What does this fold into?
Amino acid sequence: MSPAEVLWRAHDKALQVSWSRKQVNRGEVRTTQRTASGVRRFSSTLPVGAAGLVPSQAAKRVIAAADQLLLGEWEVLGVERNDMVKPDWFHDPVTGRQAPANTYAFRINHRSETQTGNVKQIWEISRLQHLTLLAAAWFVSHNDAYARRAADQLESWWRENPFLSGVNWTSGIEIGLRLISMVWIRRLLDDWPGVTGLFEDNGLALTQISWHQQYLAAFRSRGSSANNHVIAEAAGQLVASCAFAWFPRSADWQRTSARLLERELRRNTFPSGLNRELASDYHGFVAELGLLAALEADAAGSPLSAPLWQRLCAMFDSGAAVLDEQMRPPRQGDGDEGRALLIEPPAGGTWTWLLGAGQSAVGRLDWWPRVVPDATSSIIGAFVTRAREIPSRPAARPWRFADAGLTVLRTAHDREPEIWCRCDAGPHGYLSIAAHAHADALSVEVRCGGTDILADPGTFCYHGEPPWRSYFRSTIAHNTVELDCRNQSAEGGPFLWLRHANSRELEVQDIGDAAEWTGEHDGYLSLDPPGRHRRCVRLDRASRIIDIVDEVDGGDHDVRMAFHLGPEITAELQGSSAALRWPRACTHGEARLELPVQLQWSVHRGETDPIIGWYSTGLGRRVPSVTLIGSGHSAPGEPFSTRLEFLDVGAATDPLATPSAVSLSAFEARAKQHAEAG
It folds into this structure.
């Protein structure tokens, strides 16, 4: 940490100590909240007829999910819960523990599973996003059962979570997201007869909304922690101060949060639009936050700057560019399925609604994938007050993002199923702690028709299970090369990296029939002798072949190379050849994987000692999957060559027959030239 950050953190600690006198205990809530005027009006409503814009099938999905909630059923980060009729805001169903409800918030270590249980389970329902879904169900149906349930649970949360008491006041990101939920519950219930009694005329509501904003005004993420958390804090305060402009400090909160959001969104985002955390899930999350805050500022008559909108538009364009044909983004880095706003069941994916809403806000480019309107994009689109004309947008779909070190090699639109290959030679992560980074330099991620073939493992957990947290972030858990049983970057904790591998692209070119990418990283220069890993990837579009050539410079090192297959892939390994099949995927197919002959190859699946062969479908969820591990030694001038050849479905081809005659020699020669030049 820098000296300035040390001072900031010391100041925050002192403030936390002094604010202990402001803690409010249960039963002591006073609801005489002073506001700026005697008349409180919620003016940023949706236009008349907005509910009619929601497609009927989308409305049915919202109502079906709301009906499940009325029964008390809801999935939270992989856990099927049936206690949502009257949720216990402090109960963790994973460990069975009760998190502190009366303890002063800043005396709680929310990362200690012993103290809090799995805090993500507790925080997730306290984001109140299931209540925005209930409010959306009322919006499209006017069934009062949904509004009453949302109102009852909102009042319950307000009563049981007084200011600075309990685990739900320990993190600013949670407070920012909760404010966004409150605003949208109010907006979606605008025509419900009980809405002013729930909000404007409710002293408890006014008190809680004020408390949330006081907290964000005093405490914010900064320095090495100023990642997506500070975006959520700024966006939450901006949204609330615009929509609930009822308090003496509302104008000041609005100005301060707008400045903070503009500055931090720029810092958190590459000029290309990709997120600097290099965690794809957070790209969509931050884009959501930025869009919701910008639209709220428009509705309040205080629009954000043109540069902010240009950066936000770049986030849409880059996000659209890296999606595969099934609208799936990369799985790079951490991901916790975080949403800024939940209007419909979350299974649809963030980018479906983001591109739909982005079309209304900044306009759709011809090369964007087409999306079917859903409930979220229809409702958010109706909230757009004016569309922006953003200059200098890409005329064709970008495939290389040099500032982020991310390149996508893919087959042409007319070749189906699409072969999609992400190559990584970017920075390790964002800021000194790189909290959401993985040790995945030079890893590749390959899909065919949207099915994971060579898969990124994803993220299984954040808190409470250190061995699993470490595995899913490790080098051996990614499709790359590990030397001397070491991670490329040095882990210091569940959200801390002490040493970062530096990667760089050496050459990237697309000649039409083929595209090539070459990169290297220095994460093993600390070894004795120092090592350097270089990788070349070539996609031959005509033959549907991906070639990977790896070189290790720097003497003799123990080498382990991993290729992780998606959970739908079966593998039959014979020596250094593997037959891959995915008969049950949405687009079934076969491939032959020719592995480096210098290594001894073995098959692993769902093992726990040590952990290997796992794929996380989302936070809190993991399934066994096949991992191929090659073990051996590096030798100067001896590259490791891998070939992945996709076979025509239905062709009379034995995946383990003689490999394709297409020669690797030219490609290997190019790799050797890079080695000599390096």
Q: What stands out?
A: The longest strand covers residues 532-540.
